[in-house]
Amino acid sequence: MYHPVKKTHCCIKPDELVTLIKKHYCDKIKYVTFKTTDGSEVSHKTYSFEAKLKDCDVPIKFVVILGKWNKDDDNKYHILITNNLRASAKMVITNYLLRWGIENCFKELKDTFYFDHYQVRHINKIDKYWNLCLVAWTLTYWIKQNAYLTKILETKPTTFNEIKQAVNSLLEFASTNALSKNEKLANDYFKIKSKRLKKKLVA
After folding, report:
1. Which residues in 34-69 are b (16+ Cβ under 10 Å) and which e?
2. What is the phi-psi region of residue 114: left when phi exceeds 0, alpha when psi lies from -120 to 50, beta otherwise?
3. Residue 155 and residue 159: Cα distance in Å, rounded?
4. HEC profile of the chain
5. Which phi and psi (to 5°) does residue 98 adopt?
6. Is 137's pLDDT higher than 80?
7. Sequence spans of domains, the chain
8. 162: Cβ–Cβ under 8 A, 6 or more apart, which residues?
9. Residue 144: pLDDT over 60
10. What is the Cα–Cα distance from 113 to 133, expressed in whole angstroms?
């Protein structure tokens, strides 16, 4: 980018960039106000400009956010980049903040639905496995938002894993209940060999 002191275009490190903005472009710093996930509004000082990354010829828009996101943030500034040169600073920041929901989604997919534990190698089979994981995640999310599990269960499930376990328990209960009321179904169910088990199920 253009260096206001050296009077030429050159590569600038992030820390130096922030210092130059505060010293030479303070009159172009703008406040951007946006809503957070809890519904409150916050404002941040921003400076936007077009430049290029090192070893990359694609024009990029930079949005520098001066200051911390909140009191728990360890970073004194944030630099966001986009190849959408017409995007406003507010749009870039808003899109960036959506990443946290996406990160949580992938964490739930990996921790609860074993998204990255596939044991196949062909890309089509991996794609099918991922689609099944996403269907299971979507169904669980729908149950979390719409189902009345608190009216059915004594303990309210809150995490995705607890909801998955609750649904599994309800399915097991429903299956056992169905078997207990239908002797023929119990006898034919998966061709159960154990007479003791069949007797217990239809008792």
Report:
1. eeeeeeeeeebbbbbeeeeeeeeeeeebbbbbbeee
2. left
3. 12
4. CEECCCCEECCCCHHHHHHHHHHHCHHHCEEEEEECCCCCEEEEEEEEEEECCCCCCCCEEEEEEECCCCCCCCCCEEEEEECCCCCCHHHHHHHHHCHHHHHHHHHHHHHHHCCCCCCCCCHHHHHHHHHHHHHHHHHHHHHHHHCCHHHHCCCCCCCHHHHHHHHHHHHHHHHHHHHHCCHHHHHHHHHCCCHHHHHHHCC
5. -70, -15
6. yes
7. 2-97, 104-201
8. none
9. yes
10. 6
Say which residue the tokens 């189902």 belong to: 147
Query: pLDDT tens across 44-61, in order?
Result: 999 999 988 888 888 899
End-to-end Cα separation, the chain, in angstroms: 80
Residue reference for tokens 């056992």: 176
* pLDDT 10s digits, 13-26: 999 999 999 999 98
Long-range contacts of 189-195 (CB under 8 A, 24+ apart): none
Give the separation between CA 155 and CA 157, rounded to whole angstroms. Answer: 6
Phi, psi dihedrals of residue 185, rounded to the nearest 5°: -65, -40
> Residue 97 corresponds to which tokens in the numbers above?
């903040």
